[in-house]
Design a protein that fits this description.
The protein is mainly α. The chain is 84% helix and 0% strand.
Length: 446
Amino acid sequence: MKKQKHPLITGALILTATGIVTRFIGFFYKIFLSRTIGAEGIGIYQMIFPIYNVCYALTTAGAEIAVTRFVSGEAARGNLRRARSVLHLGLFLSVSLSLLAVLLLYLNADFIAVYLLHDARCASLLRIMSATVPFGACYSCITGYYYGLRRAGIPAAAHLTEQLVRVSAVYLIYRVALSEGRSLTPAAAVIGLVLGEFSSMLFGVFAISTDRSARQQKRKRDYSLIQLAKNMLSTAVPVTGNRVCMNLLTSAEATLIPFTLQQYGLNSERALSVYGTLTGMSMSFILFPNVLTNAVSVMLLPSVSESQAAGRREQLKRTVQKTVSFCLPMGITFTVIFLLFGKYLGTFFFKSEMAGDFIITLAWICPFLYLNGTLHSILNGLGKTSAGFFNNLTGIMIRIIFILLFVPKAGIEGYLWGLLANQLFVTLLNLRALREYLQPGKARLS
């Protein structure tokens, strides 16, 4: 009899393969942007993403995790009709909030740009970007549904579609601008972001509309939608609150970096260039290997939730231990690679010695960065969202303290030290929260 592949492994492999392709596309896309809109343009472009992340956290993050957790539970019981109801409730909640967020963001773009981001040029980018919020909300709930069913192929294909449409759209805008004697602006990159999100949403909607698995189930609805909604909200609301809080602090962090760099002595343009080089160029290399750990993280959440519900304690313990034994050696390997070749990578791909210097310094965070994402997903799968929130909150506060105290005196190096301290401390906190699954003997299920 042919042995069936484990859905966690299969899903992780699908997401990894897709992630490698999309990371390659995104990587060369960043190179293209660095040579068309420049480091300062990338800095301006990157500044709007904390606001985007706050909108995502408010409208989507909690709903997506709730959909994944409840769909995985219903699928394990064979109730696909109830799983589809979970999706519909998640979509209603997420899309309703997203439409409100669009209105607030569009009307207050000038205030946010001037008083929060300290750059009026971001206002037009925020208005364009606001269109992505409902598209992203719809897409995220659909992908959460398929992750819950352990069917990673559809989210992977949707993500690949999004990346291809985004890059193609920006390249076409660039060609038109070039033919008219104009240069590319950060607005073109944001338009590409909107079109990419729209295409992934269309892909997801098409997949759901043609998926007849739930319709073929003749079971009558024997559950209350109101009770189901309450159960989902009990998971979604804490996650949403945690994510909003985290992203507000991250937004403050992104705003403080250029500001404190000016206190260090850089002018506004130079500060944005340094920020753009760090976030838009150097971090592209550091995050590239993270594609594998991200794929594992996505598939861990429904797998851990299902194992916990079934009382499979030893399986949970093995999952945590294998995660640590895989991610740490991987991180150490890439630390060595970036230390040896970071300078060359920065100058060859981005024509920037500064990018190479940042890669070398950031190399030390790789073992902790790659491990933390998977550990956080395990904590969410176990329902330990409060522990995960506290750990990440502590990490962000460490970074903000370093920004306020060290960047005005040491420049961007002060922030890089903060990143290392943050990742190391959060790793220790995450391992402490999962210590019962790392110790010899039988684990006690939470």
